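Annex B. Sample input.
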Amino acid sequence: MFSGEQELPAAGSSAEGPTQLAPAAVASLPGAPSRYESQKRRDWNTFGQYLGKQKPPVLVSQCNCNHVLDFLRYLDQFGKTRIHQRGCAFFGQRDPPAPCTCPLKQAWGSLDALIGRLRAAYEENGGSSETNPFGNGAIRIYLREVKDCQAKARGIPYRKKKKKKKNQNTSDQMIPPKDEARTS
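Annex B, continued. Sample output.
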């Protein structure tokens, strides 16, 4: 048992009987990992298992961005987001009125968050930021393509925010007041 843990009686047992730690107590322990840390560790272990099952097995120290891209494509089979194909009658509709047979894939946001966690885990496990395959430009391009494809399939426009110019005169930005007294 970790220091600071309290044993709570299990449901239906007496104070002298077997005890177990309540889930709320585990989450509030000072030494317990956060949800993010637990997820990061789980993702890192899953990626390591994926590499180990390759023919031939690949060590994490030998993996590159191609292994990461293959892993992301592999994960699509477990996705829960329906991505309409170009030939589908519902392609480009936000809320299709009926089900279709288009494939389920990983959502762009899930993949983006996964890459962020794996990128951090790689460096925490001894990898250098310069050789981090999760930070490779090919990964960013792949994620951007997934994002654009999913946006088109759902009819959701993703527009990049325009940067404001810093050195503009305030007089150029002034809008003349409307003349409310004017009549047509």
